[in-house]
Amino acid sequence: RRARGRGDASGPDSLLALRRREASTMEAKTPEKITPGADVATEEAAAVDGPLQTVFLIREFIADPGDPALARAIAERLATYLEHAEQGATLDDAFGLSLRPGHTPWYVIERLEIRNEALMRLADSIGDEIDGGDMAKEILKRVNRYECGARWKRDRHLATPPEGYDEKTRRIFAVLKAGDVPESASQIRRIVRMKSRI
After folding, report:
1. Any idea what DSSP says for residue 88?
2. Torsion over CA of 43, 195, 55 and 111, rounded to 10 degrees?
3. Separation between Cα atoms, residue 117 and residue 12, nearest integer Å
4. Can you spell out the DSSP letters for 144-156?
5. CA triplet 50, 55, 58: central angle to 5 degrees?
6. What span, in angstroms and rounded, lies between the C-alpha atoms of 99 and 83?
7. 114 CA to centre of own chain
8. Rounded Cα gap, residues 35 and 132, in angstroms
9. Cβ–Cβ < 8 Å for 61, 78
C-alpha cells in the first residue's frame, strides 16, 4: 500500500472556490430538539456535501474569527452542543459531522476530491504530450517514477514542492501529497473522465 499523504487544508483553487459557493448557500440553524447521540445537522448538511460545507465554515471562522455571520453560525452550534451534551450529544452531532452507518467520513471524501482534482490537473498538463497514447497509463508511469525516486523520499515531508520544480512535477507532487493514489490505470482513467462530465 502507498503511504498516505496529506493535501493542503484548503485543497486546489477550484475546489476551494466550490466550497465557497456551497458555504454561501448554507443556513446555520439550531434544531429545536435532538435525541441522545443524534445527528443534529440541518437538512442542507444531511446532503452528501453537507459535512464538507460545515468544515469549510469552521475553517473560514478559524481564518477570520471576526466575521459576524460565521461567529453566529459557530456559536449557535456550540450552544446546541452545550444544551444537549448531558443527553449524550457530541460536538460532531452539533456540527452535523457524525458518521452515519454506511456513509464515508467527511475527511475521506475531502481527501479523495483533492486527489481527483490533482489527477485532473496533471492530465491537463501532459495532455499535449500524449498523441494517441493512453493518458492514464502515462500518469501512472510518471507518478510511480517520481514516487520511487530519490526526490520523493526527500520531498514527501514538505508541505509544498521545492522551488524550481516544473509545473508537471509540481502537479505530480500534489497527487502524491493527497494520498490514496490509484494503483491501476483503469482507476485513473475513470477519475480523469469525470472532468468531461463536470
Report:
1. T
2. 130
3. 7
4. HHHHHSHHHHHHT
5. 130
6. 21
7. 5
8. 58
9. no
What type of residue sits at position 172?
A: I
Cell of 12: 486546489
What string of pLDDT tens digits covers the 198 residues of the chain? 454 454 443 344 444 444 444 444 333 333 333 333 333 333 333 434 578 888 888 888 899 888 898 898 899 999 999 999 999 999 998 888 888 787 788 888 888 989 999 999 999 988 777 755 688 999 999 999 999 999 999 999 999 999 999 999 999 999 999 988 998 999 999 998 876 554
Please identify which residue in the block is written with the cell numbers 501532459.
126
Q: Grid coordinates 473522465 are at which residue?
A: 193
Question: Which residue carries 469552521 as its cell?
Answer: 58
